[in-house]
Amino acid sequence: MMELVCPAGTPAALRAAVDAGAHTVYCGFADETNARNFPGLNFSREELAEGVAYAGARGAKVLVAINTFPRAGDQALWHRAVADARQAGAHAVILADLGLIAHAAETHPDLRLHLSVQAAAANPDAINFYAETFGIRRVVLPRVLSVEEITAINRQIDIETEVFVFGGLCVMAEGRCSLSSYATGLSPNMNGVCSPASHVAYSEVAGNNEARLGGFLIHRTPKGAPLPYPTLCKGCFTSPSGGGQAQTGHIFEDPVSLDATELIPKLQAAGVRALKIEGRQRSRAYVAQVVRAFRAAVEAAEVGEPMPAGLLSKLTEGQAATTGAYAKTWR
Amino acid sequence: MDLTIGPVAFFWSAEQVRDFYRMIAAAPVARVVIGEWVCSKRLPFWQHEIPGAAECLIAAGKEVALSTLTLVTLKRERRQTEDLFASGLPVEIADLTALRYLPQGQPFWVGPTVNVYNEGTLEWLARRGATRICLPPELPLASVETLARAGEAAGVAVEVWGHGRAPLAISGRCYHARLHDRAKDSCQFVCGEDPDGRPVETLDGRAFLTVNGVQTLGHAHMTAAGQIGDLDRAGVSALRLSPQIGDFGAIAGFYAGLLGGQAPGDAVAKLRDLLPGAEFARGFLDGTAGAEPCL
Lengths: 331, 295
Prior knowledge:
heterodimer; A: 331 residues; TIM Barrel; 2 domains; 8-stranded parallel barrel; 15 strands; globular; B: 295 residues; 8-stranded parallel β-barrel; 20% strand; Ubiquinone biosynthesis protein UbiV (chain B); Peptidase_U32 (chain B); RNA/ubiquinone_mod_enzymes (chain B); 4Fe-4S (chain B)
């Protein structure tokens, strides 16, 4: 059966995910070493050890994401996170930074290393480079690849692949995007945040609701209509054109989330080892519901049954979903 | 400090490329990085200009390196990346993929789209043969200082983004094609219509970003003109200037003057004369939002 890798932003979410059928749970420490560095989220060292014990007693594994890029002069914080994750009994750490990976491989040769999506290894050469140089055991594939490309990659590499199937969707190559810091000064790579709430402002102007990020208008909707969170790359903008008509709309991506449920059998045939659900910032109830649905889906895929339909309609209600780059036409 | 001209980000005609490098051959810059940086589909239209441009620049006393793509995915792109190492010129890697093809012991440069955020990464790349690294534009001055020191110790020249629209993101999706209701595979090379990129504004009319095929850049021209003293004291060895349409030789000349000790005075006012209508940002060095305008 394909492995289901589920998010946990809190110890309660970790237990909920395990109880709902997660094979594996991933989480991070409560600091800037992980890419979901949100207030009130993430694990202390003690909580991680307890989480590992809880999961282990129920046959599940815990991965620790240490997937921001260490700040120059401050690498010790990241080095300590790797050592502490190992100490707590994590099954693996998920890393993105070349220097941190080199450090982990050298200092903890027995520690299993996964390559974070933030490392943006998008072809067999990059993946084989990490595998051969550092003994990386699994790569989380960037969301820029089609199913056909994933199939081809799996034929040319010897390590496991993990892909995102549900939740937030980056339209840019992850780990290589400074849009958020361009507008706010805070970025996923350096601060573990994208389009941070601290820089969001809502206002009502002439019968419209407006959402701004770092002062830049990202969404404007008529009063009464839903106003999406101002994630920069999902914003509504105008592009003037010298020769032609100005275009107004979601120039990068609509405010959609990823739902690749229907592609699970294809991803399985493509040789994908694990399916990942985004959402460490989500509630325990959300996590439980999504995990339960996806556990049913991977079990169905395992015996060649069709994907259960409408499992997640409640969660995506009012919000459009896409299969993203997995379908080549998305590009 | 001296000056490096980065690879052209935009889709220029062969003629534009030829004229540009002729102009740069006469400009006061120490080195030039040439190559298709953004989209491999553009390369057949201008790659025949590369040998001549390199020859002309080398004859003018410049160092020349060839750049890889920023995002390598296709088989064709992987082969092109591999071929660069056999060119006899130094290679600047814009994607870590290139390391798989790097011949043992061959020195290389690292471009600003590779994530070098800390000493650990810089030192690892140096051990592998990196001799020159242009840091990601996103870094604040404190990181630049630490990395320049680490570079000095490791024998790596450290460069900083000095001028131009900063590369902010790269995607599998082509936004130029999307703006024309096309997919990437049937783009019909529409990015060629916008040799300085296509502007993206907020709904209230504020210039914000620039779309360039699969790449997204800032709208404002980042300039380190006001921070040259800080960068010099930090041990930074070069400023990178990113090509654009217009009199780029004059822009290079302006920065060469600043490096030569010319008092910056109102540097931005002079830049405004060279690039009428452009907006300028101080960039990320202050640790603020990259779009923060120069006053």
